[in-house]
Structure formats: structure tokens, C-alpha cells
Amino acid sequence: MNSPLWRDDAPTYPTSPLPTDRRVDLAVVGAGFTGLIAALLAAREGLSVAVLEARTVGAGASGATTAKATVLQGTRLSTLAQTHSRELAADYLQANQAGLNWLRDFCREQGVSTQAATAVTFAATDSGIENVEAEHQTAQALGLPTVLHDSLPAPFPVHAAVELPGQLQLNPTHLLAALVRAVNLAGGTVTEHVRVTGVRADTDRVRLTTSLGPLTARQAVLATATPITDKRATTMELVPQRSYLCAFDPDPAVEIPEGMWISAESPTISLRTYTDGDRTRLLVGGQGHRTGDFRPTAEHVDTLTEWTMRHFPGARRTHAWSAQDYHPVGMVPHVETLHWGGGRVLFAGGYSKWGLAAAPAAALQLADLLQGRPPQLTFGSPSVSGTLKTTLSRQASAPVSEIRNLARTLTGSGGHRGDAPDDSTAEDNGAAVFREGIHPVGEAFVDGRTCRVSLVCPHMGGTLAWNGAEESWDCPLHGSRFTAGGRLLEGPAVKDLKRH
Ligand SMILES: Cc1cc2nc3c(=O)[nH]c(=O)nc-3n(C[C@H](O)[C@H](O)[C@H](O)COP(=O)(O)OP(=O)(O)OC[C@H]3O[C@@H](n4cnc5c(N)ncnc54)[C@H](O)[C@@H]3O)c2cc1C
Ligand code: FES
């Protein structure tokens, strides 16, 4: 588990050491789509730019994504219109369309291979029909040439479908490599294996503490999916969600429907194909859940595999992996100047698993903000009443543990003793949880070694849960994740777990 298909033949990324004088106009933290595109736009405007990546280029969601780039995003437009307003849905669409256009132009310019594809939102059951129709009506009202169908030919049930032609799909590692090359060509640097552990704004500079020593910049962009080091409103409003992807070698005798599909119902099923040479694979994804769920995570991959075997008999699974993206409580991505950063520290993220168009859109907004220009396009401002409505409806349909987690996301409280799973549940999945005094402690057995760590999250004290599928300790509050031995993987935390 957890080797994305894309890694099989990933191109090498032309990365470089940190700038020798350790002073730049702009430091970008995180080398996913947001960071690399923001860095490229700033470097093309003449700023000296350094991108600092804790792991490797694309190590977050960007290198593990399904990579469907579309403005028909499930039932998002109608949901935004119903939750907030038609005007906000129009702003959101316009910004995403600008992001998609930028992406298409960049890929064309740089020779990144893309395939034109039709995006399809389908009702897998009768209960999804109304949502599909609502999406079609909203999309049409906003000027998109969507087509509504009672059904479509597919080897799985389709009770209704709305489709939008002219969208695109790609291999994300090809896009990431082209972005790194373009940043270099524009005079910037991209450095891997440098973790930023502190960000402090003075009157005229931002001082970054990193695992390779200090670096100062006039401005900084935190393109870290959720803002690292932040313990305030932005982090609290971003709900971390992991989801799963499997790649299959399909039986050539079984027809695969063309297009990029996603179901209107939850849990979602998402499909696309990827053709490399004369080999076509089927990608099936979904089963999203809040990061740090105490339920065994491996069963999500089993569910996706069973669904695929049922509808595509003879398919052979070749890869299974998972990754996380952040879902804002108000449903609208964040692009903002963080108020603790003295006007010099910016953040963009929270794309709810639609970052292929939204990340370029956010980067275009960051480019304006960095130059002191008002952004030409924005995702729109969520209404307070809409945000409250989403929060309440999520609470009404969520299990109790989800409600507790959501409340904690919003209040930042967590780490109570009663939250950890009981020992037997954890042991079933390759780890054990117990108490030393009042402190929760986890013991995992990995590669013949016993690793014992504190289960108190160093970000804000959440209690970590064992993720058996990925052999990691995951925090349900804001999504920090750690290896079995306690080494920080991702999330807003900047420290490893304490060893016991
Ligand atoms: C399973 C899955 C499927 C998806 N499918 C689609 C899809 O089909 N279409 C679509 O539009 N979107 C999809 N998305 C969403 C999309 O992939 C993301 O929205 C997008 O990749 C986010 O990009 P990002 O650059 O903001 O974040 P990331 O790619 O997560 O990048 C953040 C980077 O910051 C680095 N970082 C973190 N902390 C530090 C630190 N302290 N110091 C230095 N670096 C740090 C991380 O290592 C990481 O590389 C999917 C997401 C998931 C999880
Ligand atoms: S408490 Fe915030 S990520 Fe764990």
C-alpha cells in the first residue's frame, strides 16, 4: 500500500541546493502544485524565489492525485449555490475556469502530455438523481454547456448523469517535473528534504527556521496544504480528509467507459483511465474519511477493489495508495494573508480534492497579493449563515466521533484520554495503545522493530490514532501524520513525536 501508480516511471525533478546567501524575495514552503505554480508566477515577475520542500516534490496530494482537471466537480456548483449563493458559485466557477485555462496553456507551452476528457457526475442510485439534475441546472445557469442524461452505457448502475466535455486529465508527475524546470528557468530554486520548522515575521523580513539552517525572505507563501505552525482560525477551519486510489489492469474483453467519472453520492466512487504506450489502466478512487479515523483503514482499499471486481470482472489490482486534502468548513478554498505574519506570510489551500484547477487559480491570486495588487478573480467569500448550515448538516449526518472531531477542529481542543481506541482494536491493526500515567502511548511493530511513541500530537495536543493501512499515527484534529517511529510526515505540526 501507498505507492502511487505515478511513481513507477516518475521523471527526475531537477532540484537544487538552497541559495547560498540564504536571502530571497520570496520563500515558498511546499513543492506541490500550489507552491510550484506560485513560485513560477513570482519568479516570472522578477522576484528571487526559493521553494523549500520537506520531503520530495509532489510528496503530498499533488503526486498522489487522480489528476482530473475539471470545473464540473461532482455536485459542487449546486452545493455552493444552495449553501451560500448563486453569486458565490459563479465566482468559484470563474476562478476555477481561469485555473484550468492556465494549466492547459502551461501544459501546451511546456509539452506536458494531457488528454481531453469529458467529466461526468453520475447518480449511482435513485437517491443521487436530484443532485445530478441540480448540478446540471446550476451549471447551465452559470453558462457551462453541460448535458443531462437519464442514463449512460457503463458496466455499473447509472441512474442519471451530467457531463461536461473539453476537460482534461494528465500524469501529475509530468506536470510537477515541468513546473520544477520552469521555476529553474525563471531563476528560482526548488530544494527537497528541507523542513521548515518556524516562521517569524519581523518588520521588514520573514525569518524561516529550517532543518538546513535559517533563511530570510521579504515574503513567504505557506503552500503546505494546511498552514504549518498556525494554531489559529485558518487551521481550525480546514478538515483533513484521506481518500484512497487503486490502479487496475483491466481485462481487455471488458469495455471501460470513456471520461472522468465521479458519483454524486457519498461515499464517492471516482474513475478515470491512464494510458501509457499501449497499456491502459483503470483508476478507481474514493472512500474518503476524516484523517485519524479509528476504524481500520485497510478495509477502504478492499471496498474499492470489491466494487471494481464486481463491475470490471477480471481486473487485476496493481497499485493502492492514499493521500489527503483539506476541506474548508465554509467549502471555499482559502487564499489569504495570515494575520500573524505581519502582512508578509500568505497561505493557499483547502481545495476539497479539486486542486488541479483550484491550485493554479489560487496561485494566480497569490501572484496578485504578493505584488500588492487586488486579485483579479477570487473563489468568493462564504456567507456566515452558509458556513453554519454546512457545519450543522455535517453534524446531523455524521457519526458521533466525527461530530466530536469537527467540534475540536473548530475549537482546537483535543487530546482527551477517552478518545483513543481500546487496546484490542489497535492491536488488531498492528499496533497497541496504552497509558503511562495520563499520557497515551502507542507501540507499533514495524519491520521487526518495536517503536514506542507518545500519542500526544505536538501541534495542539490531539490524540493520535493508528492507521494500519499506512502504518502511521494520524491526528484527527488537523491532519498531522507521523511514521510508526514518530517521524513527522505531514500536517501543520513541525516536530516529531516524543519517543518513549
Ligand atoms: C486521493 C486524492 C485524489 C485527488 N484527485 C483529484 C482530482 O482528480 N482532481 C483534482 O482537481 N484534485 C484532486 N485531488 C486534490 C489535489 O490533488 C490537491 O488539491 C492538490 O494536489 C493540492 O496541492 P497543494 O500543493 O496545495 O498541496 P500538496 O500537494 O499536499 O503539497 C504540500 C507540500 O508541502 C510540503 N510540506 C508540508 N509541510 C512542510 C514543511 N514544514 N516544510 C516544507 N514543506 C512542507 C509537503 O511535503 C507537500 O509536498 C485529489 C486529492 C487526493 C488526496
Ligand atoms: S493537534 Fe493539530 S494536527 Fe494534531
TrEMBL record:
Provenance organism: Corynebacterium marinum DSM 44953
Name of the protein: Rieske family iron-sulfur cluster-binding protein
Region forming the signal peptide: none
Keyword Amino-acid biosynthesis: no
Pfam family, one: DAO
Gene Ontology molecular function terms on file: 2 iron, 2 sulfur cluster binding; metal ion binding; monooxygenase activity; oxidoreductase activity, acting on paired donors, with incorporation or reduction of molecular oxygen
InterPro entries documented for this protein: FAD-dep_OxRdtase (IPR006076), FAD/NAD-bd_sf (IPR036188), Rieske_2Fe-2S (IPR017941), Rieske_2Fe-2S_sf (IPR036922)
Domain of life: Bacteria
Rieske domain ranges (all copies): 419-500
A single Gene Ontology CC term: cytoplasm
Alphabetic keyword roster: 2Fe-2S, Iron, Iron-sulfur, Metal-binding
